[in-house]
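Lesson 9: reading folded outputs for more than one chain in a single document. The general rule is that every protein is listed as its sequence immediately followed by its structure tokens, and records are never interleaved. Here is the first one.
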Amino acid sequence: MKDFLALYPDTVVQYLKVSGADFPSLSLSTTLHDRYEFRMDIPVKYSDDHLKIVSYGEPECHLMEVASVSTRDDGAGGIELEGTTGGDLQKHFGLKEWEALVESKGDFSVLGFKVEKGKPVPNFELVIKHLKSSERRKENQ
């Protein structure tokens, strides 16, 4: 988790149910180059009384290209995110690849992934806004 936060300081941290883990587990999300969403899920196991974390599982990483952003009128004269369409780059990887990515300081080419820079997706700021708003809702609960 600390490496993810160091590489991507704008990360949104959420507590979600992830495969093979107790609830809540950790989900770290960020956006890259106004085109990609990058998420790491970290499974968490708790003690029988649910008061202590007894272990963390191996992280699962998901890099997803956004090809387009659909918008809708929010009814108050603003625009909201309606949805996204996935692009060609949809990759999932584990601990070994994550360690290589950390060693390269976030250069996805070490994993054989070609990440486009300088080609932002129109309205991508709505994806960022949506991601940030999900964190605020969690903080306010």
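And here is the second record, again sequence then tokens.
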Amino acid sequence: MGYRTGWMRWVVVACFLLVLASAPATGQTLYGSITGTVTDPSGSAVPNARVEALNVGTSVVKSAQTDERGSFLFNDLQVGSYKITVSAPAFTTRIIERVQVAQNTTLRLDSILSVSTVQETVVVSAEAVSLQTDRSDLNYVIRSSQMTDLPIMNSQGRNFQALYKILPGFTPPVEVHSDSGNPQRSMATQANGMPQSNNNTRLDGTTVSYPWLPRIVAYVPAVEAVETVNVVTNSFDAEQEWQAVRR
């Protein structure tokens, strides 16, 4: 898995724990989620409504039905732009376009369907939807454009970890005593005043921190191969499946 493989793109999830936890169980943080409630104009739930999520980039469609409370959930969506279609008998069809799904985040899309005796479709845009209200974790994203445009040099080359300094509550990253598989030397930081040993980094869902020195990343991918860096600092979601291990 050399960094010279130009087509390979990585997703880095760095978690900076605020409890004594250093070894995660295998968790999946590469996908995004969409949840919501379908109601009629009076606020009553619409059960058995059909909800479809179309990935515009891949044309993959996933479908779900609302339960008795009118709720639905997609929890394994690939990152990308989606078109969401909500339909039910005797109601208008609602289409929400340009819904952006990001890694390790949950997006809420509630829909109100109007009663209709004819086939009607209402199309809206979700470009302004940006708040995550269904999870409490403190979650930051470092995008590839920031890695391209901002200074990220250390003594061994360009390293995405240098950008932790732009996040709230982080100390400036410093080099630690380990060369990684790539020329970039691993860097470490403190989040919200907690020790560096509470840090854990995963690459495409797999831990790449040394188990005995979790502040040190054993493999730092080349910046050109990193698509997104997702940083979680507190109130971890259950799907991240942290397992406390006393040292």
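What the second record shows: Residues 1-7, 17-28, 241-247 have pLDDT under 50 and may be disordered.
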